[in-house]
Design brief:
The complex is a heterodimer. By secondary structure, chain A is mostly helical. Chain A has 6 helices and no strands. In chain A, helix 1 crosses helix 2, helix 1 crosses helix 6 and helix 5 packs across helix 6. Chain B is α/β, with parallel strands linked by helices. Chain B is about 50% helix and about 10% strand. The chains are: A mainly alpha, B alpha/beta. Chains A and B meet through helix 2, helix 4 and helix 6 of A and helix 2, helix 6, helix 8, helix 9 and helix 10 of B.
Chain lengths: ~200, ~300
Amino acid sequence: MSRDPGVWVAALLTLAVWSYLIKQNLVFQVVEHVFIGISAAHAMTMAYFTIRAKGVQPLLAGDVSLLFPLIGGVLLYSRFLPKTTWLSRIPLGFTMGTAAAVVIRGSVDASFVKQIQATMLPLTSLDNVLMVVGTIATVTYFLFNLKSRSGVGGYLARFGRYMMMAAFGAAYGNTVMMRMSLLIPRVRFVFGDWLGLVK
Amino acid sequence: MAWFERLKPRFERFDKIDSRYIYLAVFLSVLLPLFRPIGLPITVGEQTREAFLLVDGLPQGALVIMSPSFAPSSDAEVVPQMMALLKHLMSKNAKLLWVNLTVEGSMYATRAMDSLKDEFGYEYGRDYVITPYLPGQQTAIASIASDIKGALTVDVSGKPVWDMEAVSGVSSISDFDLLIDFNTGDTCIYYLQQVQPKGVRVIAGASGVTVPYLMPYLGSGQLAGLLGGLRGAAEYEMVSKTPGLALGGMDAQSLSHAAIVLFIILGNAANLAAKSRRGRLDTGADNGENQGFGYENQGGTSK
């Protein structure tokens, strides 16, 4: 069994979290609140040091251009005073405009044009046929203005729905895999690092 | 189905089972293989093999950007991937520039390098550089893509990045041979949108949840390789012949998945049995006619 106090604290906190699986209890709630508090404190501390290192210190060293984003950042807080709320819209608009420009520039080619190109495949293998038909069928499912859901359009839409269900199933499978991947090292930590039962 | 009718009462009993028994069964399916490994076989997936072949084909001293863009909540899945890839890169004497888009990134970079630098004879500055947290996500990546020397000026200790031997010959992002992003969210897609068009090949190490979102980029060839979850890390350890933490956990992962599949089958059988008893299967209310996402009758569409 470990003699490291840090390992003991981590192991007891792990057991406290697992206790929720038996039923809701006070120990779990305490640990939950401790976790939220530490996360909030960590985020605030990192934000403070980031602003200091990336904004305030270079500004004091003579980089005057940083004055504008720093003032913009302060103006975001003006929304807490009813009379000055409008001021917060200036940096917000600037941020949204910049973000939209960056996203559009990158995503149109990488996430739209190239993805469409990737579905233009020769129908020479089952994989390719599934890819092409599956894409067309899934898009057909979202053609809400189709007058009728019968006929070829209806069959395609239904096939598209099945394709999406298969995709959701794959996503769920990956989610399960992730949860198990998180559990395994914790079990190994409790029974190995703490209790010394697993090598 | 006669066998279903025969087993129906047992399935119905399962419908009322206390969920804590299921937790216990899954827990045991994880715990027991850790005590007594079974050695279940593992096959290496195509996407992991592609990543391996790409790294293996890099020239000695290749320039590589490493980007640990994950939070501690995904540590268990992504760190084994990072360590497996890092060992392979360091065996090829790759020059590493660590770009950190999360606040924890530089901590993971420092830990990983500290644990391996002596084994591979790496020296800070000569072989690798760790930059501090760069906020902004996609905006930050766009600035790296357009002007990497302007976006990353100092390292974690405040020294000028581009004076260091590891990256002294870099003039733009296109000088890098490879970028590896370890992520749990959108950062890999941002790299594919901003950096990959500049001619830098991108590999992703992703948590299991993120994998379905990255698969289309792998299919289109934009992503050069993908390691998915702990399984991806284990596959990479296997193909690169560097057994580590991930391979050791694969028995537990496989058995726990088997337990979950079994419970899904039993749960559905119990649900069917319960419905059958209530006679709802014959009413048409739940026989699949009304399944879907509820969009069919929206937007003026008549059914």
